[in-house]
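Morning run. Coffee first, then this:
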Amino acid sequence: MVARNDERLRRPIMGKLRKHLKNKKGVSLMEILVASLIFAMITVAVTAILTPMVMAFVRANEFAEVNSLLDNVGNAIISDMSLAVDDIEINSDDDISILTRNGIISYTISDDGFLMVESGNLDPRLVFPREFYGNMTISFEVSRYDPGMASYTLVVTVTQSDSITYISREFIIRPLMLMSP
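And here it is:
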């Protein structure tokens, strides 16, 4: 019963469609212009909606990359600072030496703006491969946070290659061996 009702509804529509397709008149220039105008308006509206969404996606990815870089650089330095057995020697901005049970570990920034580490008799080497940084460079600064408690502040800053400075992240470190009982 349902199939018969559907079939009855389709017949008039299909008949009108066949009649319209057999029409030899064609399409007028005005109809083409109106259809083009409607298509252009829809395209502009969709573009206006999609552009901010795409830009937000790009910014979110960029923000995630910056945070990943900040976390990884900070954790690399913190892991050795927390194992210090003596005061951390702050040579200058972007240059520290840490005495651990395994020897002296030094962190510096290369001329290219990448984190380098030197430990023992090994030559300085990159902590992360160059590809990891993308088009960003880093800098860090270590200072005493609380001299009475042997704690330090590490500030890591990410800068894009066109000198746009992104966010900095601050870490507070208390080396385990230097904590007073």
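Residues 29-81 form the longest helix (53 residues). Good start to the day.
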